[in-house]
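#structure-requests
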Amino acid sequence: MPDKFVAQAHLPLAPYAMLDANSVGREHAEQSHPYRGPFQRDRDRIVHSSAFRRLAHKTQVFTGHLGDYHRSRLTHTLEVASISRTIGRVLRLNEDLIEALALIHDIGHPPFGHAGEEILNTCTRECGGFEHNHHALRIATLLENRYPEFPGLNLSQEVLSGQRSRDRKADRGNSQPLLEVQVVDAADSIAYDSHDADDALELGLLELDQLLEVPLWRDAATRVEKRTTALEPEQMRRAIIHQLIETLVSDLVEATRHRLDEAGIESPQAAKDFPQRLAVPSEEFTQQKDELESFLFSHVYRHPTVLAERTVAGEALQEMFAHYSDLPEQLPQKFQRRIPTDGVARATCDFLAGMTDRFALENHSNCRLRLSRKRSQ
């Protein structure tokens, strides 16, 4: 087994992989680096960005009030990167590009997860709304200021294009994204299908017996029980999670390989020109994933505890948006400077979207305090 793994690790990239040498380049031309490829540099720029660091304190599904075991937006991102690289290596794709794409894929999320996104979208409806994938591009091309020569991070066109393919606001045309992009999107789905269930079990929002009603989860449990007996409940849960990821990754790899062979894909462009995505689960597992996601939606994402947290978070963001829209002079200077070109609403949204959960709640309390003092004067 180790010999096979080593051999796999040293295989040349497949003809349908995106090669470093074929990168279109960056919006602002730069000299090549002596020992880092373009996508390695992208990865490093993303990791060193302030927006990436803030992901450590942003909600994935559950807020910090519920404990500290569950995933943050950062740990979810790292898990997606790990799963993506595994798939990419087996398919002989460009792992450096895959890693950069995985690390940036959620960088545009505001505090409080999708609840925060929905509130900011409502608040900014008159100026285009808010969507986290679109905001990630705004961060990467404009809001991060780490280099004197250009705004943003000046990432490669391949990484920006991959992120743009997720943007509901963008005109994506008829072509598919690169296979590396498709792999990251598939890995993202595998990660949240398995880890959201794990977090919900740890927090006591679900019982193991409930999940055993779901075919995909029940099959994973059966496989674990055939290998190992007399596991403690916590050990059993973690073993099932591992098996679930293994099952979904294996299916994705085999289904993707079959489609690539059947379609005769021999270049990145051929994969982009193919009518459908190639890196997706088999039909059987697509249906089973849909069943698991439907279960998670009704039993986890709509759980009364989660909804109550979302309500508190939503009210805080709404009140802060109204506060700074009325008093834009209280925005940090960086965001005040954006008002002449982007308007007060967008500048306010940019400020709020960059907050961590903790900072948002603290800032909300301060806004209420300032308002109370103003009324008493």
